[in-house]
Amino acid sequence: MSTYKKVIILFILFSVVVAQVVNAQTPELNREKYDALRKRFNEKFIYAPGNAASQGTYIPVELRFLATDGAVVVYWADGTWWLGHYVAMLSLEYARLRAENLPADATLAELKQALLAYRRLDLNAELCWNGAAERNGFYLRDDVPADMAGLFGAKYVRGDYYAKCGDTTTLSNSPSQDQAWASYMGLALAKKLVDDAEVQHLVRETADMFLKSMQHTEGKKEVWEVVNPVTGAVAQKRADIQWLRHAHASAYEFLADTVVQFGHAHRSFWKSAWNFLQNNFMIDKHGHFNWYGVMVLSTVINEWGSGGKNIYDWLVGCGQKLSEKRPDLGQPVMFPHLPLVALLLHGYSGDKMLPRELYDEILNAAPIEGASLWRVDGELVGTPAPWCSMSLFCPWHTKSIGEYNMLDYMLLYNAYWLVYQNSGN
């Protein structure tokens, strides 16, 4: 076993011990944990040199693991999905620092570069299919080349760009609506919380990119689907997107303050289809991105399904029901950050706020060295629940072996601070 892996195993064992005394932790200790995890993220999970025009920059590493030779591998998948969460975390961090009267310029500069990364991914996408660079909404999920490994303290890069760029027979690394879901949340928080003209412009520009990526015209017919502009191949068919067209259009309207007419997105049929999805998405027992997609879209556009009087209460109710479906994940509320995001975006006038103690327990349980999962002597050894999966954003990923980026902790902590500590709730 490599020294690197031995150290990780010791960290995991330490986390198990720490988990026994979480009730003794304080908000001050969780703040120290935040700073430690932020430093870890900066050093191992992001390359942020101050220029988002540089290839491979400002896209969070999804996973760090060990190759068969014991060397470190950095891995990207769904890069713009993670970029959306990164933008959300930075927007919340900026708001928290401002509320604390602490310097926030560095976070603001980082946020601008993260938003500019979307522009780069849009501009250069066609090059992977031997087309000409063009900003037209068709984007790459990541553009991290093999020679960047050393910048992350790793030996190998793995990801869609590394594996598929130049292979014009594949659609891998092209747009899909799940990439937009998380990005909508990040853009919405940036719009709401960051009072900077350049950020507001970039929010609108990036929203335009996602809207264009899903719009295709066949003669006079407007179709919600993703089409590769170089090859003409369908990257995501209309059957996958059209049932959510009302929600996509509403998200864009929230971000850009412009009504969407394309493809009759707001006809009563498509609004009814969206409502049907909101009321029935929990039919899946084990969990996948559809759970998250419906709830994130609902959060951004401030629309809820049956059984709720407002978006906050509806999200809490859904989160509790989903937790009952997956008790193995140890979460009192699935996707605990979403009610907080909804409150920050739209306010809350109800009287059923989740107790602060629920979030204290979640934050207390997070390991200061970061969550991870390793195979030791044939057995899986990982961080205790609720930090037992790759992320609170995708908790069904319980078998991803390696170190996790902990964007979930940082996003949750900032939202928690703004809702509970800043307001005195």
What does this structure look like?
There is one protein chain. The protein has 425 residues and is of the alpha+beta class. It has one domain. Helices cover 48% and strands 8% of the residues. It has 15 helices and 10 strands. The strands form 3 sheets. A 6-stranded mixed β-sheet has the order 3-2-1-10-8-9. Strands 4-5 form a two-stranded antiparallel sheet. Strand 1 (63-66) and strand 2 (72-75) form a beta hairpin. Helix 6 packs parallel to helix 9. The longest helix has 21 residues, at 79-99. It is globular, with a radius of gyration of 21 Å. Mean pLDDT is 93; it is low at 13-23.
Count of individual beta strands:
10
Outline the biggest β-sheet: 6 strands, mixed
Beta fraction: 5-15%
The whole-angstrom Rg is: 21 Å
The N- and C-terminal alpha carbons lie at a distance of 48 Å
Sequence-ordered SSE layout with sheet pairings:
Blueprint: H1 3-19, H2 27-44, E1 63-66, E2 72-75, H3 79-99, H4 105-123, E3 156-158, H5 160-164, H6 177-193, H7 197-213, E4 215-218, E5 221-224, E6 226-227, E7 234-236, H8 238-241, H9 245-256, H10 268-280, H11 289-301, H12 311-325, H13 337-346, H14 356-365, E8 372-376, E9 379-382, E10 402-404, H15 407-421
Helix pairs in contact: 2-15, 3-4, 3-6, 3-15, 4-7, 6-7, 6-9, 6-11, 7-9, 9-11, 11-13, 12-13, 13-15
